[in-house]
Amino acid sequence: MLELHDAPLAPLTTFRLGGPATRLVVATADDEVITAVREADDAGTPLLIIGGGSNLVIGDKGFDGTALRIATRGFALDGTRLELAAGEVWTDAVARTVEAGLAGIECLAGIPGSAGATPIQNVGAYGQEVSGAITEVVAYDRTTGETVTLTNEECAFSYRHSRFKQHPERYVVLRVRFELEDAGGLSAPMRYAETAKALGVEVGDRVPAAEARDTVLRLRAGKGMVLDAEDHDTWSAGSFFTNPILTAAEYETFLGRVRDRLGDGAVPPAYPAGDGLTKTSAAWLIDRAGFTKGYGTGPARISTKHALALTNRGEATTEDLLALAREVVAGVRDAFGVTLVNEPVTVGVSL
Questions:
Q1: Pairing of strands 245-246, 278-279
Q2: Which residue in the list 160, 175, 177, 301 is annotated as catalytic?
Q3: pTM
Q4: 181 classed as catalytic
């Protein structure tokens, strides 16, 4: 177990932002993770868990406590059952399942970060969410001091949310188990119109899993959503805001604001979200509020490829990024009466 002091955290995040940690511990085995967590908890030391760093916004002052980098490895495939150690690189794990001819997470290719982070956010894209394939999550419960195994139902998954996100100080994910599908090398049915169109098929059709993965990677790359050190559009956390989910009353009010601003012919994206709820597009709201691709003149700007990604152009500070985020939130609220919620986890700062 590696231990460093006054350790830079910016290189451990995809934003490449944030100050140092008082102490950084890198754990490569589950027992090392548990030991580091217990030591911090017993000493009353603040603890920051870092996986792939793709969903973190760390303040410029850094973190006064112990930062625990989970670097465990483990990929175990038994038929259609998959178990991943929390530190496994997610996009590499997806590639290996596709190579094995299995379906279920192929449309989640290219998402940066670690496997252990995926259930926390209930990571999803292009018509798939990890909750559709996860069977169990093994985690260390800091409240009881025990290792627990939670079923899919016990994880309480919902849109970009879970039991782990609801109780961020309680659980440390150690392992994630999945049940995939053997469809003879074919993908799961396409659920997302953009993906189906790019593949030249209809929604509900299956295609070779490798073709689905490759198509998703191309779509993501076109939006700056595949990590590339040379491309500042990828110095981001991907989608910075979640898509708003509105009640029936909120949606009607929203439609009125849309008509007032854009005219009677304007139709915002709308998707059923259950129980009378409607999900709309954060990217659409941002763009129609005047924050178009490439918006900004400072070192933090909106991506030139996708309005939903805020980026570090190379010399930004976290405060630069937050200033841009606050400007976008205020602008969308003023234009449409909808308050955007940030998707990345903030550390030592807030919007």
A1: antiparallel
A2: 160
A3: 0.91
A4: no
